[in-house]
Amino acid sequence: MSISNSKRNFLTGRLSAPHPMRPPWAIIEQQFIETCTRCAECANHCPNKIIRIASGGFPEIDVSLAGCNFCEICVDVCEPNALSLQISEPLNVFASVSDACFSERGVICRSCGEVCESRAIKFQQVVGGVAHVLLDTTSCNGCGECVSLCPAKAITMQHRDVNQ
User: Fold this and answer.
1) Which of 41, 44, 40, 42 lies closest to 56 in space, CA to CA?
2) 128-156: b or e for each residue (b if 16 or more CB lie within 10 Å)?
3) Cα(148)–Cα(16) distance, rounded to whole angstroms?
4) How far apart, in Å, do the first and last CA atoms of the chain sit?
């Protein structure tokens, strides 16, 4: 018997649980659930240790300690092909910066911009003040490196399409 994520969330008290962030190149969510055998090989081989096995045994990404470098190892070890390089974008997420951001609160900090390889995070200079963070969500590759380095914990990942 299979239990849906919405039922699982209800039974465990997570009524507004976010859509899970799957490993890079995960196929469409419903197909992923049907295809993934929950073998944990992707998590076992992830060099950054960001793939973890979540409730229900399915893999999810946790970028709170490190970002994804898109090494493709998880795809290589995924025998059921729940991860596929046929997917155009490795991760269907982008960074989102909250008002808790130090720069937005007048404290000089550019940690996120310094690690952003896709150059999606920039800073707008302000005369007589601290630069404000500018995030280009279309350029963000969703690696999550900025999440792990944000001292204010002001960055989260958001799905581009909640239907995936």
Assistant:
1) 40
2) eebeebebeeeebbbbbbbbbebebebbb
3) 23
4) 23
Determine the average pLDDT of the residues in 19-38: 94
Each residue's pLDDT tens digit, 154-164:
999 999 875 44
Question: Cα(29)–Cα(164) distance, rounded to whole angstroms?
Answer: 5
| Model confidence pLDDT, tens digit, residues 33-60 | 999 999 999 999 999 999 999 989 999 9
Q: Which residues pair with 89 in a beta bridge?
A: none
Distance of CA 117 to the CA centre of its chain: 15
Share of the chain above pLDDT 90, in %: 76
